[in-house]
């Protein structure tokens, strides 16, 4: 039993029950990170307190221990938790430092300036619709080459360039849907999404997952699989939304 009372069956575990729940298979890393960030931001485990053991967390979230360790590594890198070894070891919540002047204020200003949930849902509607339209109506050879080139540009992109190239891929898909109105609306909502993404760290694990989804999305579009294109695009949008909710909301 941990000193913080976070062992199985403890009162701390009961407090975590409304937040920690099985994640969906498609976005296991992102949704698990979102939920544990919620635990930390809500103060359900106090500063200095210990999170449930890895096995318990993995069981609650229905993810592998490998995925959970990747999530905990992100939290360590962000200075939110620390790992201790030994008999009384585990993952402990660190006291959050005072924010730098302007840093936390700027983040809050950006979040408060937009309706985050509305932005994320509108983005999902537009992207899912664009992918479905492209797949259903088909792309010409030149259009298919443009889409593949946009996808290829995101592969092995330096971190500093990734978000710009990722944006270009999604803008290309919106443009190829054949609706100037949809493309214009998507460009506007994507600008807002990028403002929010700039407030959170670039996570290599998430980028690897996004790249796999990008590839599946493009292949479904080029294969004319409208249902598949819509589904993988929806899953992709939900993964990004989970990260933003975890860090910002």
Automatic annotation (TrEMBL):
<keyword id="KW-0238">DNA-binding</keyword>
<keyword id="KW-0805">Transcription regulation</keyword>
<dbReference type="InterPro" id="IPR011711">
    <property type="entry name" value="GntR_C"/>
</dbReference>
<dbReference type="InterPro" id="IPR008920">
    <property type="entry name" value="TF_FadR/GntR_C"/>
</dbReference>
<dbReference type="InterPro" id="IPR036388">
    <property type="entry name" value="WH-like_DNA-bd_sf"/>
</dbReference>
<keyword id="KW-0804">Transcription</keyword>
<dbReference type="GO" id="GO:0003700">
    <property type="term" value="F:DNA-binding transcription factor activity"/>
</dbReference>
<protein>
    <recommendedName>
        <fullName>HTH gntR-type domain-containing protein</fullName>
    </recommendedName>
</protein>
<dbReference type="Pfam" id="PF07729">
    <property type="entry name" value="FCD"/>
</dbReference>
<dbReference type="GO" id="GO:0003677">
    <property type="term" value="F:DNA binding"/>
</dbReference>
<feature type="domain" description="HTH gntR-type">
    <location>
        <begin position="26"/>
        <end position="96"/>
    </location>
</feature>
<dbReference type="InterPro" id="IPR036390">
    <property type="entry name" value="WH_DNA-bd_sf"/>
</dbReference>
<dbReference type="Pfam" id="PF00392">
    <property type="entry name" value="GntR"/>
</dbReference>
<dbReference type="InterPro" id="IPR000524">
    <property type="entry name" value="Tscrpt_reg_HTH_GntR"/>
</dbReference>
């Amino acid at each position: 039993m941990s000193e913080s009372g976070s062992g199985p069956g403890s009162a701390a575990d009961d407090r975590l029950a409304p937040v920690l729940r099985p994640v969906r298979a498609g976005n296991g890393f992102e949704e698990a990170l979102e939920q544990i960030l919620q635990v930390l931001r809500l103060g359900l485990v106090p500063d200095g307190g210990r999170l449930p053991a890895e096995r318990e967390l993995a069981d609650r979230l229905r993810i592998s221990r490998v995925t959970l360790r990747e999530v905990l590594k992100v939290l360590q890198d962000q200075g939110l938790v620390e790992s201790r070894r030994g008999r009384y070891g585990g993952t402990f919540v660190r006291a959050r430092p005072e924010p730098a002047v302007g840093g936390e204020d700027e983040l809050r200003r950006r979040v408060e300036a937009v309706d985050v949930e509305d932005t994320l849902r509108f983005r999902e509607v537009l992207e899912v619709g664009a992918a479905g339209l492209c797949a259903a109506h088909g792309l010409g050879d030149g259009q298919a080459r443009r889409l593949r080139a946009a996808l290829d540009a995101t592969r092995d992109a330096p971190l500093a360039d990734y978000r710009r190239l990722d944006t270009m891929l999604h803008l290309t898909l919106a443009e190829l849907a054949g609706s100037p109105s949809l493309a214009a609306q998507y460009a506007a909502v994507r600008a807002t999404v990028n403002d929010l993404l700039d407030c959170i760290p670039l996570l290599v694990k998430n980028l690897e997952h996004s790249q796999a989804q990008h590839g599946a999305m493009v292949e479904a579009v080029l294969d004319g699989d409208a249902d598949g294109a819509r589904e993988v695009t929806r899953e992709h949008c939900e993964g990004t939304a989970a990260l933003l909710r975890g860090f910002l909301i």
